[in-house]
């Protein structure tokens, strides 16, 4: 196997497998900007929900007040 074969294999994987959903969406030819970026909007909604959940958990943990916030709370800080 040569290096060119390796890189052609990577190209084949991404063109035929990884980007298959995008190729299927391209066949629909959406006429609006929102339709063309549906997948991006879905990922943005998932990330926003995860961020809201994470920040809520951080606030809940901080409100408990059990965390040691002194300068020497971790052994690598001295």
Shape from CA axes? flat
Strand content: under 5%
Q: Main β-sheet, in a few words?
A: none
Overall number of strands: 0
Distance between the termini: 52 Å
Low-confidence stretches: none
Mean pLDDT value: 84
Percent helix among the residues?
A: over 70%
Q: Structural class given helices, strands, pairing?
A: mainly alpha
How many structurally independent domains? 2
> How much is the radius of gyration in Å?
23 Å
What is the number of helical segments per DSSP (H or I, 4+ residues)? 4
Element-level helix/strand string? HHHH
Describe the structure.
- With 78 residues, this protein is mainly alpha-helical.
- The protein has two domains: 1-30; 33-66.
- The chain has four helices and no strands.
- The protein has helices spanning 3-18, 20-28, 33-36, 38-64.
- The longest helix has 27 residues, at 38-64.
- The N and C termini lie far apart (52 Å).
- 0% of the residues are buried.
- The model has no long low-confidence stretch (mean pLDDT 84).
List the main descriptive attributes of the protein structure presented here:
mainly alpha; 72% helix; 78 residues
